[in-house]
Design a protein that fits this description.
This protein has 300 residues and is of the alpha+beta class. It has eleven helices and four strands. Helix 2 packs across helix 9, helix 7 packs antiparallel against helix 9 and helix 7 runs parallel beside helix 11.
Length: 300
């Protein structure tokens, strides 16, 4: 046997759905408009996650190499390596000595003989430090630090991928832009949803004006008058979030973004759905409460 509370909530839910069906066109328009705003927000979130995951993948590549003068001793190189590793922006540092650098060079051209050995030339390749930073845009911090340190005289040259730097700059601009868009769309959604749901609830109150007046005359508790409209506002939000995620699923399937491993790790649709549902329900209930409270205040 269902409890009185569950029966009451079931009845309130049916009343709210009846209110939605009475103003079907307005209900659909409100749900679609709210859903589209949430969908736009989700697309921007997807772009932000893509840019962030691309930055992480670029950051895992070694594209900062410091070539070291032959005058540097093993002790000095060890000290410099340790100091570079201690920098907060540095993830890892690996050292390659002259012999290892020559072996790597020869391995790149296995079909050719070693020209240095053949012609009796001393190994001209310098040792080097391969550095991975937390973010590729932090290379300048490492370079500036070393050039202004006691180890600056040991540096022969610096090799940093210009192509990667350009990509990083573009990705950083995309992430900054999407963050600003997210704030703007969030504000638009909050105020837009409040106005749309309040307008829909006002019309719903108008269609049930006589019924509400009778309930007031017989001394009905104000909460019993409010609750169906609060449920109605919640239903607007619920259906809008579901509609937006249906659109998002089609969008992700159409663009094949789920195939990117970095995107799969960074994008959490279940968490996003839960947060958006909670926020939307809160907006729906608050806007409905404001609308019905205003009517009850004016009718007294």
């Amino acid at each position: 046997m269902p409890s009185n509370t569950s029966k009451k909530f079931s009845r309130l839910g049916r009343l709210a759905l009846q209110n939605l069906s009475r103003n079907m066109l307005l209900s659909i328009a409100t749900i679609v408009m709210m859903g589209l705003i949430i969908f736009i927000f989700n697309v921007i979130m997807v772009l932000n996650v893509l840019a962030q995951s691309s930055l992480v993948q670029l950051g895992d590549k070694v594209d900062l190499i410091l070539y070291i003068n032959d005058d540097a001793t093993s002790y000095e190189i060890t000290e410099m390596t340790a100091e570079v590793e201690s920098l907060p922006v540095v993830k890892s540092v690996s050292y390659t000595n002259k012999e290892e650098a020559l072996a790597e060079f020869i391995s790149l051209y296995p079909d050719k003989s070693d020209p240095f050995t053949v012609y009796g030339i001393e190994n001209p390749l310098p040792s080097n430090l391969q550095i991975v930073t937390q973010s590729p845009d932090q290379h300048g911090i490492v370079i500036d630090y070393l050039e202004n340190s006691a180890y600056g005289t040991f540096l022969l040259d610096v090799e940093s991928s210009n192509e990667n730097q350009e990509i990083v700059a573009r990705l950083l601009s995309v992430t900054n832009f999407t963050k600003q868009l997210i704030i703007g769309v969030t504000v638009t959604f909050v105020f837009g949803s409040l106005l749309m749901i309040m307008n829909a609830i006002h019309l719903s109150i108008f269609t049930r004006k006589k019924e509400i007046s009778i309930m007031q005359l017989v001394g009905a508790n104000p909460s019993m008058i409010r609750f169906p409209f609060l449920f109605e506002g919640a239903f607007y939000s619920l259906f809008a979030v579901i509609f937006s995620f249906i659109l998002l699923i089609f969008f992700l399937e159409g663009t094949n973004l789920n195939q990117f491993s970095g995107f799969q790790e960074g994008f959490q649709p279940a968490l996003l759905f839960g947060l958006e549902l909670a926020a939307s329900l809160a907006i729906g209930v608050i806007s409905s409460f404001i609308a019905i409270s205003y009517y009850l205040h004016e009718s007294n």
